[in-house]
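Let us walk through a complete example step by step. Step one is to write down the protein sequence. Step two is to encode the small molecule, NAP, as a SMILES string so that its atoms and bonds are unambiguous. Step three, shown after the inputs, is the structure prediction itself.
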Amino acid sequence: MTEIAERIGFVGTGTITKAIVKGLLSDHVGASEIIVSPRNADIAADLAAAHPQVTIADDNQTVVDRADIVFLAVRPQIAAEVIPLLKFRSGQLVISLIAATERARLLDWIGADVELAQAIPLPFVENREGVTAIFPRNARVADLFNRLGVAVECETRKEYDLLAAASSTMALYFGLMGRTVDWLESQGLPQASGRAYLSAHFQSLAKVAATRQDEPLHALAREYATKGGLNEQVWMDFDEHGGTGALIEAFERVLLRITK
Ligand SMILES: NC(=O)c1ccc[n+]([C@@H]2O[C@H](COP(=O)([O-])OP(=O)(O)OC[C@H]3O[C@@H](n4cnc5c(N)ncnc54)[C@H](OP(=O)(O)O)[C@@H]3O)[C@@H](O)[C@H]2O)c1
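Step three: the predicted structure of the complex.
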């Protein structure tokens, strides 16, 4: 894989910037120059100490001035204060990671004729295993995120917003596993045993869902539930006692937040 020659800048050096920079600077990818903004000071210092390709800019404007590709990676509340103060170059590629902030508002803050893409990288990009939704289609942005896993280019904003809703299932996944392990422990199974069992179990299930793409998930649910058996019972209890309702309501509320 050829090294990325363009200079890549980050406004906001937090959790997701750290994951992207680590992924970009792994042996398999390689980027020639990365410029990060000074906040968070500890993360910026750690990245610069670990990687000679990383320099810490004096301020956010210096990041924009020196970079060919600028990532906007501050929280939404901070973005409204920070981005309108920055001067971007016409034609500069800007990739916004800012959640729940629509394109028109971003362009208004940026105030220049940039090439703007939005993306939802997840922490797994650090290990080059992240699936990243992108909107609109953009070959340079897709190439970058394909190096860090798989880029999914959305045709419409609706598709992008729905993948944003789908990406909000990470805490749900660990929470479901955590509640199950807690219950197993309350019944006498040591935490470590419950966790090791469930981690392997869920990994096998994820593999089936990924490899048997042509089969409807509800058909897999039926296949993995013996008629009148334990799996069928747990699914029916979940579905009939409010589990599905709570899930749908949560997604509807999160979609409202994303699209507001
Ligand atoms: N984490 C994820 O998995 C993820 C995934 C996709 C998208 N996103 C989006 O990416 C953005 C960043 O998320 P995050 O999880 O990385 O948040 P985060 O860890 O809070 O990072 C944001 C960073 O911005 C810094 N900051 C604060 N004020 C600043 C300013 N005036 N100028 C420049 N930087 C400033 C903060 O520094 P201090 O610590 O010094 O305050 C902080 O380190 C958010 O909009 C989020 O929606 C996150």
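Step four is interpretation. The beta strands are 4-11, 31-36, 54-56, 69-72, 93-96, 115-120, 130-135, 149-153.
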